[in-house]
Amino acid sequence: MNELRDAALGYAHRGWRVFPLHGIVNGACTCGRGDCSSPGKHPLVRRGLYVATADEATIQSWWRRWRSANVGIATGAASGIAVIDVDLPTALASLGRLVDACPLPTFTGLTGGGGLHLVYASEDPSLGNSAGRLPGIEDELPGVDLRANGGYIVAPPSVHRSESRYEWIDANREPAPVPGWLKQPERTYAALDVVREIDFEGDGTPYGLAVLHDELDRLRAAQVGTRNHQLNRSAFALAQLVGGGELLETAARPLLLMIALACGLGEPESRQTIDSAFEAGVRQPRCASHRLR
Ligand SMILES: [Zn+2]
After folding, report:
1. How far is it, in rounded angstroms, from Cα 210 to Cα 281?
2. Burial class of 235 by CB neighbour count within 10 A (0 to 12, 13 to 18, 19+)
3. Residue 5's pLDDT band (boundaries 50, 70, 90)?
4. Cα(164) to centroid of ligand 1, in Å?
5. Exposed, middle or buried: residue 258 (CB in 10 Å: 0-12, 13-18, 19+)?
């Protein structure tokens, strides 16, 4: 009997994609690092949320191997959910605004750390992740994050570092439809020079950022007729670095799209090219060669 595995299988049954996270055993993260910055919350498998699955055999084999692994659910269109992550007490000042704006009740989890996960049904592939704000609400919302495409949540009955468990308030409730205002804003596409002005600080390692600059430059310089091909190549190369931990997906994707549109490529085709190149690229992770030694 293993509650964590059973819960993971239950999520998969709902069509949600899951993957194993490090667990908490005897009050410590199973990664064994005394200075772990994210106890019980970081992936146990290489490529983390990119290998999340609803495949029963894979899930069985993960939890056979790691019995106390916490359960991660990949959010976004693949699982059909977007999650508003409310960190208490930081979010106390944001609660009034949130309760006014969000359809409630919805499928809601209590995080082991005293926060809430409001789970909404969403198939929107453009919805990303945000911290301290929500797309569609202008004001800052301290303690309120969005987890959608490219993100994940720690799910019940995972064990929190406090050793209390994550749990659902009502496990039989269905997620309410995502609120209509929760939409990635339409971007305004500025002149191509804008790339030089962007502050990339924190979006990746120095190596990852150097390649990012280089690929964006290539895309900007691509001739008419070769641009979609170049977008595909650049997106694939950057996705490999995302897979290798050199670059944040949340940095690479929007920049590729921005440059593609500024070059005159159409939005639906560009998104499609980026999506498929990313899917392939993260499966072939790449990192700076000195890190392989
Ligand atoms: Zn750890």
Report:
1. 18
2. buried
3. very high
4. 17
5. buried
Q: What is the DSSP letter of 52?
A: -
Cα gap 68→262, rounded to integer Å: 48
How far, in Å, from the CA of 208 to the mean position of ligand 1? 24
Of 74, 70, 71, 54, the residue nearest 14 (C-alpha): 54
| Å from CA of 87 to ligand 1 middle | 20
pTM of the shown model: 0.69
Yes or no: say if 115 and 91 are a contact pair by the CB < 8 Å rule: yes
Task: Give the Å distance between the CA of 28 and the centre of ligand 1.
Answer: 8
Q: What is the pLDDT of residue 191?
A: 46
Beta carbons within 8 Å of 110's beta carbon, 6+ residues apart: 116, 117, 166, 167, 168, 169
pLDDT at 14 over 70: yes
Token pair recorded at residue 183? 């939409």
CA–CA dist 121, 175 (Å, integer) = 6
